[in-house]
């Protein structure tokens, strides 16, 4: 394994500071659920003193949101996220993957299969979902018990037409390429619509590369490095030679995966050629809001929508991509902004975490809900569709359907429309 | 099986798989000693049963809070039971009539502060680990912190304790009374006893009203001696800041490298000074301190927002963990000398560093004479390691010559036990042993710490 990765666990001095910031530890209060504990296990594993053969290792290592709050707080920059992922890789080797994660990997590896699954799910949704679709949340509860989802879980229905089906490249000599991410491609197409509308209003051309694969994050985060590597390679090959200034990745988690985790993944496989390619491509990867903020005069075109809003920092936007002030600056021009307490505390979604540990996930979300409600905002704005899915459900459970959720791009689009 | 009784008693709160034992095997010394099992009691009764079982079977028991100690107090050096107090983490009462909080030992210091704040109160002991260390651990190690210069250390803020003795009996020592002279002052004996005499299960803590206002300033010096003189001058002028911290050149470089907090990397030393009191009082104090600093050649920066203040303190609190960037080995000492001797002591450490060709990083609580002397070395270089230990030996000697102590707040544990007798004398160490035998005849409580 690449020497560069070793620093990630060798730099831990066991001070315990991560205990004061971890959202999971805040609920469970035991060493196995905090970065210091995870790092100690992985170091012992690398030294050959320990193996993740215990059944408990799954519980201990999968109960991590990969929110990187500990990475941000660590004075020594220990990379707990990669440590957890490496431990999970070993767990997968020893215990195998959960069935649904295996199926997920198969589907995500194949775009056609994905489209087909989405299409059939769309048709099936007539009988899968209850009729009482929650229009304010654009989601519905399940009618029957599915293997991996709780029945009362609110799930946003799949869009009738995917992002890739809806849009193609536009403009002469476009300088940006758009990577929507699966959640926006299949479900929250309206967020993609908002970005496309903004680009048209600003007269900016773009490329929609329909051959793009899933970024691989859900697979990689599960500890399935081999399949994640296939997807990473495919995407790098696809975008590496594209003559663009930016690859605008709409989902922060996908962006974070492609910008920071791809290189580490190839470091793990000692694949130096792709480490370098990943690092090079990383320079072009950008969040859409940051792209607009840095490269256009959008702030001059925003009109007050009259809404009172608060903002939640998505983990993979604020902590990994360091995008924190840009959305706030734009939101302040589009609405009345009130900052919530602990705006950057993880919403508790964590991808498959919210499926595997739903109660814990909702408990973490409920702390967030209190902070949101205290601001008296009408709208919760955030820059990540997974956060929107999680927090809109938590708001619904708390009986606060009156608080709406919007993606930053949707608010910007509305604000431009008003002008 | 050996621990069946504990398993039946605690069910899923009894852990003996390797994956669990490994995670209760270390503390901030980074040394690793595997316990045979881990228990997580929720009540004093359970602690009592665990201890009486251990006493009958002569199994070592090491009580631990959040495992953030620097002297190895929470390590199971002889195996046995790791007794994690973390699930006993309730704040039982905040008595506003008497300004006393009753807490379980697993309460994190900072969580208590958050609970007290709305009442306009705080608990003054504030070790740098306050956001993640437990009150139980703070008491067992008699922790100090930046505010010690004004408010003293943990022992000054504990009125009473409920403890479980080695045989399982539960006793209460001290009380809610401010004045209470009945019998020996056992509470004070237990504070700082590092888990060798009893297990703390409840604590009565004195609280203090929050100051109306506070302000922090940073004074930058080109000469360490002038910084040390400034400390003496401030105290001589009868101003007691709520914190008076110093950071030496090497520590500034290290933390700046890691945090990019905008510290002056050309400086020889920084003083961080916080004053508390009425708005009027702090203005007056700050002006006086500023004059003293300027007279001693310092550049002064006063924090005017909470963010500025927090960034100054974050940098200070991050020094210790970031030292790893210099070298992977460190002898993390917390010597203390009378505050008038600080400049002399720092100078000695610099001479010692030169003599043994090791790097020594100094920072700490100038206001109370407590200096964190960190001797850095490469663990893979045996010669360098030997030199580091020789340097430490000499640092202790010089410190004792100046009338100091080998530990101001970390405790003795395993890391400093070989030097304890040098400070307190042979007869006193004998007394310690007799006291230990009285409380714990089978030596099950945290054995092999403090040479016991």
From TrEMBL, chain A:
4Fe-4S ferredoxin-type domain spans which residues? 3-33, 54-85
EC number of the protein = 1.1.99.14
Instruction: Give the reaction(s) catalysed.
Output: (R)-lactate + A = pyruvate + AH2; glycolate + A = glyoxylate + AH2
Role summary: Component of a complex that catalyzes the oxidation of glycolate to glyoxylate.
> Where does the record locate the signal sequence feature?
none
* GO MF annotations, alphabetized: 4 iron, 4 sulfur cluster binding; glycolate dehydrogenase activity; metal ion binding
Q: Which UniProt keywords apply?
A: 4Fe-4S, Electron transport, Iron, Iron-sulfur, Metal-binding, Repeat, Transport
Cofactor dependence is on: [4Fe-4S] cluster
Cofactor-binding details, from the entry: Binds 2 [4Fe-4S] clusters.
One Pfam family name is: CCG
Gene3D superfamilies xref list = Alpha-helical ferredoxin (1.10.1060.10)
Q: What is the name attached to this protein's record?
A: Glycolate oxidase iron-sulfur subunit
TrEMBL record, chain B:
Keyword annotations of the record: FAD, Flavoprotein, Oxidoreductase
- Cited InterPro entries: FAD-bd_oxidored_4_C, FAD-bd_PCMH, FAD-bd_PCMH-like_sf, FAD-bd_PCMH_sub2, FAD-linked_Oxase-like_C, FAD-linked_OxidoTrans_Type4, Oxid_FAD_bind_N, Vanillyl_alc_oxidase_C-sub2
Q: Does the keyword Mitochondrion apply?
A: no
Cofactors required: FAD
Query: How is this protein named in the record?
Result: Glycolate dehydrogenase subunit GlcD
Name one molecular function that GO assigns to this entry. oxidoreductase activity
The chain positions of domain FAD-binding PCMH-type read 31-210
């Amino acid at each position: 394994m690449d020497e560069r990765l070793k620093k990630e666990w060798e730099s831990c001095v066991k001070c315990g500071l991560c205990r004061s910031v971890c959202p999971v530890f805040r609920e469970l209060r035991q060493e196995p659920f905090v970065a210091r504990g995870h790092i100690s296990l992985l170091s012992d594993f690398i030294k050959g003193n320990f193996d993740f053969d215990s059944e408990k290792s799954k519980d201990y290592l999968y109960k991590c949101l990969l929110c990187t709050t500990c990475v941000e707080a660590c004075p020594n920059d220990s990379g707990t996220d990669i440590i957890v992922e490496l431990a999970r890789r070993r767990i997968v080797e020893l215990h195998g993957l959960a069935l649904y994660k295996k199926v997920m990997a198969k589907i995500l590896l194949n775009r056609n299969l994905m489209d087909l699954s989405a299409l059939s799910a769309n048709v099936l949704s007539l009988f899968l979902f209850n009729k009482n679709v929650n229009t304010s949340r654009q989601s519905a509860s399940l009618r029957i018990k599915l293997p991996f989802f709780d029945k009362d879980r609110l799930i946003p229905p799949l869009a009738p037409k995917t992002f890739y089906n809806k849009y193609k490249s536009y403009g002469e000599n476009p300088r940006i390429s758009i990577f929507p991410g699966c959640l926006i491609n299949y479900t929250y197409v309206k967020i993609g619509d908002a970005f496309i509308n903004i680009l048209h209003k600003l007269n900016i051309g773009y490329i929609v590369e329909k051959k793009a694969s899933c970024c691989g994050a859900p697979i990689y985060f599960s500890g399935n490095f081999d399949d994640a590597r296939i997807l990473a390679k495919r995407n790098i090959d696809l975008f590496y030679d594209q003559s663009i200034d930016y690859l605008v990745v709409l989902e922060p988690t996908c962006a974070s995966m492609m910008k920071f985790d791809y290189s580490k993944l190839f470091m793990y496989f000692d694949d130096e050629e792709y480490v370098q390619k990943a690092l090079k491509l990383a320079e072009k990867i950008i969040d859409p809001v940051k792209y607009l903020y840095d490269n256009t005069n959008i702030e001059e075109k925003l009109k007050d929508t009259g809404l009172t809003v608060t903002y939640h920092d998505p983990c993979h936007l604020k902590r990994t991509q360091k995008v924190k002030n840009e959305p706030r600056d734009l939101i302040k021009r589009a609405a009345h902004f009130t900052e919530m307490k602990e705006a950057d505390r993880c919403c508790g979604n964590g991808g498959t975490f919210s499926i595997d540990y739903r109660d814990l996930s909702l408990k973490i979300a409920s702390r967030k809900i209190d902070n949101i409600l205290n601001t008296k905002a009408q709208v919760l704005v955030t820059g990540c569709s997974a956060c929107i899915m999680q927090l809109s459900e938590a708001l619904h459970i708390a009986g606060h359907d009156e608080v709406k959720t919007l993606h930053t791009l949707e608010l910007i689009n509305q604000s431009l429309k008003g002008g | 099986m050996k621990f069946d009784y504990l398993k039946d008693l605690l069910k899923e709160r009894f852990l003996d798989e390797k994956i669990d034992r490994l995670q209760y095997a270390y503390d901030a010394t980074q040394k690793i000693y595997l316990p045979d099992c881990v228990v997580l009691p929720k009540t004093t009764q359970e602690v009592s049963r665990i201890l009486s079982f251990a006493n009958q079977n002569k199994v070592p028991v090491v009580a631990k809070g959040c495992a953030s100690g620097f002297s190895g107090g929470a390590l199971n050096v002889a195996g046995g039971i790791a007794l994690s107090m973390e699930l006993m983490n309730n704040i039982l009462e905040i008595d506003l009539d008497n300004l006393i909080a009753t807490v379980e030992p697993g309460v994190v210091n900072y969580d208590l502060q958050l609970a007290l704040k709305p009442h306009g109160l705080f608990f003054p002991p504030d070790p740098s680990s306050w956001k993640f260390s437990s009150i139980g651990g703070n008491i067992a190690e008699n922790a100090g912190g930046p505010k010690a210069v004004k408010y003293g250390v943990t022992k000054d803020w504990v009125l009473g304790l409920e403890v479980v003795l080695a045989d399982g009996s539960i006793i209460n020592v001290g009380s809610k009374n401010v004045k209470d002279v009945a019998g020996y002052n056992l509470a004070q004996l237990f504070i700082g006893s590092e888990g060798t005499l009893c297990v703390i299960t409840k604590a009565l803590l004195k609280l203090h009203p929050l100051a109306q206002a506070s302000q922090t300033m940073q004074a930058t010096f080109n000469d360490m001696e002038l910084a040390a003189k400034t400390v003496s001058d401030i105290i001589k002028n009868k101003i007691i800041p709520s914190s008076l911290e110093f950071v030496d050149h090497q520590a500034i470089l290290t933390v700046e490298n890691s945090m990019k907090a905008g510290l002056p990397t050309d400086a020889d030393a920084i003083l961080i000074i916080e004053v508390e009191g009425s708005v009027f009082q702090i203005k007056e104090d700050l002006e006086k301190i500023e004059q003293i600093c300027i007279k001693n050649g310092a550049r002064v920066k006063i924090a005017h927002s909470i963010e500025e203040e927090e960034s100054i303190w974050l940098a200070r609190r991050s020094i210790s963990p970031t030292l790893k960037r210099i070298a992977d080995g460190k002898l993390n000492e917390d010597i203390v000398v009378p505050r008038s001797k600080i400049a002399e002591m720092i100078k000695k450490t610099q001479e010692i560093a030169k003599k043994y060709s090791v790097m020594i990083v100094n920072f700490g609580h100038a206001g109370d004479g407590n200096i964190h002397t960190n001797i850095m070395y490469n663990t893979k270089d045996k010669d360098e390691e030997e030199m580091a230990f020789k340097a430490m030996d000499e640092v202790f000697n010089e410190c004792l010559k100046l009338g100091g102590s080998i530990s101001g707040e970390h405790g003795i544990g395993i890391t400093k036990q070989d030097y304890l007798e040098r400070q307190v004398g042979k007869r006193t160490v004998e007394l310690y042993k007799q006291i230990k035998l009285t409380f714990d005849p089978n030596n099950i409580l945290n054995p092999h710490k403090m040479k016991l």
